[in-house]
Amino acid sequence: GSLLSDKEPNNRLIVVSNRVPSPKGAGGNQGGLAVGVMNALQKADGLWLGWNGEIDGDNNAQLSHYDFDGVRFATFPITEHDHKTYYTGFSNEILWPLFHYRPDKVEYSRESLDGYLRVNQRFARHIKPLVEPDTRVWVHDYHLIPLGYYLRQTSVDAPLGYFLHIPFPPWDVVRILPEYEDLLRYLTSYDLIGLQTEIDLKNLRDCMVMALDARDLGDNVLEVEGRRFKIAAYPISIDVNDAQDLAKKGEQSATGQRLKRSIGDRPLVIGVDRLDYSKGVYKRFQAFERLLENAEHQRGNVVFIQISPPSRTDVHEYAQLRSTLERVAGHVNGRFADYDWTPLRYLNRGYGREAVFGFLRQSRVALLTPLRDGMNLVAKEYVAAQDPEDPGVLIISHLAGASWELKDGALVCNPYDIDGVSDMLEQALAMPLEERKLRWRRMMDVLETNDIHNWSQNFLAELMEMKLANSASQ
Ligand code: F6P
User: Fold this and answer.
1) Which amino acid residue places its CA nearest to atom 15 of ligand 1?
2) Is the separation of the CB atoms in 211 and 354 below 8 Å?
3) 18, 22, 33, 147: which to mutate for ligand 1, most atoms within 8 A of CB?
4) 65 is a catalytic site residue
5) Ligand 1, atom 5: closest residue by C-alpha
6) Are 166 and 99 in contact (CB under 8 A)?
7) pLDDT tens digits for range 283-319
8) Ligand 1 within 6 A of CB of 311
9) Does residue 32's CB lie within 6 angstroms of at least one atom of ligand 1?
């Protein structure tokens, strides 16, 4: 029963991303891409190609093929120098902060740029022999922007799609990057470029017009130097049924029961994010501290559990954030904890998906306050994980992509406004059951109409449409 191949039996699909889900006991710090794409691919007859997460001195290492969790994979290692320049350097010290509107954190170097281009070329070399004329190639995220260009250079004429999982910033931020015009030009090699939200779409369109003099042909189709491509928003989502099953199992599991025993009747607030400065956890801790200052009846009562698995540990900013959060967490507990109550449980590690979904289901409030986030799938996972008879309350930052779809049911906060977030937390903790149910239903309706399967189906259908139009106009 494969959703995509039923429709297009001869149409092969190659998905490409930097990181692929790890078969070595996924530790739970994989981010939205791995989760979303995995769910989509399990239903398709596709191959997923990417970095295997390992460092290897051999620049010519061949692809290893294996099956995992119902998906075929082809992966390869990269060298230490490539890891430093392509992954840590250009992807995570330059593009990541820039695309999250944080130019203050950009550490630009030409060496990083060279590594980025070199590894993208290497991806193209691995992919080229796998592509037949009817193979669709779907490239994911900021690590691989130039890949489409390199594939076209080796005369790959297949439909090429690209999806950006993180925000796309405004033109005036983008042009901080010395090579911003090249980067935008690489994107024009794809037939379809997908973004998370209408804001990201507007920003990319502006850039294409301002930097490359793109002609707007209507219906989201642009033309640059004779090449036509479409840009559109496809908010990524989750597998709702899968999330519900996992949450029920997780709650019943030994881990879920242990959490329950340790909390008792106290209300639980939860945050789950990779340890990343874009997630706003520092200000989130301050908002929680403010709640304990203001709402005396919550002392000895509310428990906040923040799960933050370490991420990108070679990047200086991440190491610094780690010690900042340790200090603030220690400060909050030192100030308010009592002999039988610890207000803040700060967990610097990941848990398996079932355990996390069980935690989400047991939490009265999810407090997700990124300073900027492409989507934030944890917000959607929290909603799907709830017990319909006793659902919890979602507090989501208005700077997360997910807030656009969930705003009619969630409490939408400004993560920079610490007093505001603290007030909202109080409101959430006091919210009556009827209101919680009503709000939850509104959010569930959204998730049920646009789940992960619609997401990949829509994207791939529009990719084919655009490719056909392009071939016809040549
Ligand atoms: O979802 C956004 C994302 O940046 C993915 O591209 C990435 O795989 C994930 O977060 C986790 O980050 P990393 O791969 O650097 O560990």
Assistant:
1) 312
2) no
3) 33
4) no
5) 33
6) yes
7) 999 999 999 999 999 999 999 999 999 999 999 999 9
8) yes
9) yes
- Mean per-residue pLDDT over the chain, rounded: 94
Ligand 1 in reach of 37 Cβ (< 6 A): no
pLDDT of 134 over the 90 cut? no
Concerning whether 157 is annotated as a catalytic residue, the answer is no
Please name the residues in contact with 161: beta carbons below 8 A apart, sequence gap of 6 or more.
136, 137, 138, 139, 190, 191, 192, 193, 194, 459, 460, 463
Q: Which residue type occupies 162?
A: Y
Interface confidence: ipTM more than 0.90: yes
Q: With 80 as the cut, is the pLDDT of residue 9 above it?
A: no
Ligand 1 atom nearest to 274, measured from its CA: 11
Q: How confident is the model at residue 90 (pLDDT cuts 50, 70, 90)?
A: very high
Question: Which of these ranges, 29-43, 56-70, 216-230, 318-332, has the smallest mean pLDDT?
Answer: 29-43
Sheet of 192-195: strand order equals 64-68, 71-78, 46-55, 13-19, 136-140, 160-163, 192-195, 227-233, 221-224, 215-216
Instruction: Give the per-residue pLDDT at 70.
Output: 83
Residue type, 340: D
Answer yes or no: are the C-beta atoms of 204 and 193 closer than 8 Å: yes
Residue 1 has pLDDT above 90, yes or no: no
Question: Is there an atom of ligand 1 within 6 Å of 19 CB?
Answer: yes
Strands 46-55 and 64-68 turn out to be: unpaired
Say yes or no to pLDDT of 26 above 80.
Answer: no
| pLDDT tens readout for residues 397-442 | 999 999 999 999 999 999 999 999 999 999 999 999 999 999 999 9
Where is pLDDT greater, at 193 or 471?
Answer: 193
Distance CA 377, CA 406 (A): 11
**CA–CA dist 176, 321 (Å, integer):** 24
Distance 31 CA to ligand 1 centre (A): 5
pLDDT tens readout for residues 182-204: 999 999 999 999 999 999 999 99
Q: For ligand 1, say whether the CB of 141 is within 6 Å of any of its atoms.
A: yes
